[in-house]
Amino acid sequence: MPHPKDDPRPLWERDPDRYTERAKARVRKLSVVDPETDCWVWTGATNGTETANRRLRDPRTKLRPFIAFKGRHVYAYRVAYEVWVGPIPEGLGIDHSCENRLCVNPAHLEPVTTQENSRRYWQRKRAAERATRIAAMRASGHPVFGETA
Ligand SMILES: [Zn+2]
To answer: What pTM, to 2 d.p., does this model score?
Structure first.
């Protein structure tokens, strides 16, 4: 058995458990917990740029968290899912139940198909719009269907 120093393989091949522990520590260090949502909000590198963000209405919507993992730069929420939950099935993307793409809390992440991810996105968007409309009706004293005055 070669001495670890003479083993040219990267740590994730040489000692996957230790590599996983280190990755967890890095993810925790590079995120802060939002006490209201329990999101682990990424404070590390993102692929967003100032210029690109200025063009967008909501400057944070397109930002995605990045981290170095197994020699590549990948989405940090994928790494969080992999190290805390398990491998992401081939071809699947990550759905954020909290809708915050900068969140890396594994409890808020679920691997889904692109189609399912998009379906959930629109479903949540419609639900949010409906909630806004109902709140406006309520604020103006308009009766809301299903509620007794
Ligand atoms: Zn979250």
So the answer is: 0.78
